Structures are given as structure tokens and as C-alpha cells.
Amino acid sequence: MWQWLVRLYHRLGSPKWFYEITEKWIPWLLAVSVIGAAVGLVWGLAYAPADYQQGNSFRIIYIHVPAAILAQSAYMMMAVAGAVFLVWRMKMAAWVAKTIAPIGASFCLIALLTGAIWGKPTWGTWWVWDARLTSMLLLLFLYFGAMAIQQAMESEESGHKAAAILSLVGLVNIPIIKYSVEWWNTLHQPATITLTEKPSMATEMLIPLLIMIVAVYAFFVLLVVLRTRNEILLHERKRSWVKKILES
Questions:
Q1: pTM for the complete prediction?
Q2: Spatial distance between the Cα atoms of 109 and 139, rounded to a whole number of angstroms
Q3: What is the mean pLDDT of residues 68-92?
Q4: What are the phi and psi torsion angles at 153 (to 5°)?
Q5: Which of 24, 79, 149, 161 has the smallest number of CB atoms closer than 10 Å to its CB?
Q6: Helix H or strand E segment including 182
Q7: Nearest residue to 121 via CA among 76, 192, 55, 197
Q8: CA 174 from centre of chain
Q9: What is the pLDDT of residues 59-71, one digit of tens each?
Q10: Domain boundaries, the chain
């Protein structure tokens, strides 16, 4: 198993192999993301029962929660890819980290906007300087910082290094986001889904939420794959195998 993982790691570091293997993933990722989103949204918005306290306003959870979870996961993936680049100088890792940043920022922004829409009927205001909301806003700024610093440096490699270091430093914000509702008195409700406790939601509400989470992750991977393939074509355009693709 370990040897297989090592071989996979080295193969993923090959732009040519990554480009060829991911071509097979695209249709499956697209199918899972589209079908999953359609089923999850229709089920959650039309057929799941209304919440006994929040009524129908809770239904935004089927967009807000998957986006918020993905925004945090994407940041951790970006930081790991940055660390791989810093340690082993793997250019594929740098390109993956670069492609993740705008995607993660987009999901983070969606989480903040949907949270504001949800907060208005629940809290009576669009925004409060709550620990969870503030740390999520900081996460968005960290994404913006990683993107900005990549463009600001004189060389592309220096930009990748600086962005990777910023991403690693910013990892401290992830546990703050997760445990903020436990460490401080906040308006934000505790986590809906945890690995150690039974979900607080009814099954007929939970299943479409889980479907949406899977669909959002599939869509995220699809976007990362497509953007990374574009990075490969851009940086490897002088290679003979890329020329054949561009000429075909």
C-alpha cells in the first residue's frame, strides 16, 4: 500500500501523466457534481421538512454548509500543496496550490454571503462580529493574500514560495474557525455534522445535505483538475506532447 502511494505521488508530479490520467476523471466528476447538486437541491429545497424553529429559512443550509466546509478543506489542501513545493520543489504542487486559491476564495465568499442571508431572519441582522464569522472573513483575506502575493513577486517561483509560506502560517486560522463556537460565546450555532457525535438533524434533512457536500467536493475537484490542466499547457507548451495536443 505504501509503495503504491509513493508511486502515485511521483506520478502526480509528472505534468504529462497528470494531464493524461485526469482526462478520464472529468466526465465522472462532472456527472457526480451535476447529478448530486440536482438531487440534493431539489430534495433539500422542496421535499425536506421545514425546521421547527427557523421554518423554511433553514434551507439555505444546503448551500451554506457545503460551501463553508469546502472553503476550509480547500485552504488546507492549498497549504499542503505549498508545503510539498517548498520541501521537494515539485512544480505540479505549486500549480495545484495556485489553482486552488481562487476556487477556495469563491466558496468562502459564497459561505459568507449565504451566512449573511441566513443570519438576517435568524439573528435580525446581516452581519455581526461573531468569532465564527470573523475567522471565516479572515480566511477569505488569506485566500486573497495568497493570490495577490503570487502576482506581486518578481519571479513566478518566488511567488509560489511566498504564497506557500503565507498558506502555512494561515493554517492556524482553521482550528479557530472550527472551535470558535466552543471557545467563545457566539451567535453561530455549533457544527451540524461531526465525526464524533450523532448528527443533530433529522435523517430526511441530513441525507440531502450529505449529497450536496459530495456534489460540492466533486465540483471542486473538477475545477482544480481543469485549471491545473490549463497551467500544464501554459508552462509545458514547448514540450512536444503539448504541441501535439494544441495542434490537434
A1: 0.94
A2: 10
A3: 96
A4: -75, 155
A5: 24
A6: helix 173-183
A7: 55
A8: 13
A9: 999 999 999 999 9
A10: 27-239
Q: Are 236 and 71 in contact (CB under 8 A)?
A: no
How far is Cα 212 from Cα 237, in angstroms, rounded to an integer? 37
The pLDDT score that the predictor gives to residue 188 is: 65
Read off φ and ψ for residue 235, nearest 5 degrees.
-85, -25
Q: What is the CATH number of domain 27-239?
A: 1.20.120
Higher pLDDT, residue 236 or 122:
236
Using 50, 70 and 90 to split pLDDT, how confident is the model at 194? Answer: low
Residue 198 CB contacts under 8 Å (≥ 6 apart), including other chains? none
* pLDDT of 1: 73
* Sequence-separated (6 or more) residues with CB below 8 Å from residue 43: 207, 208, 211
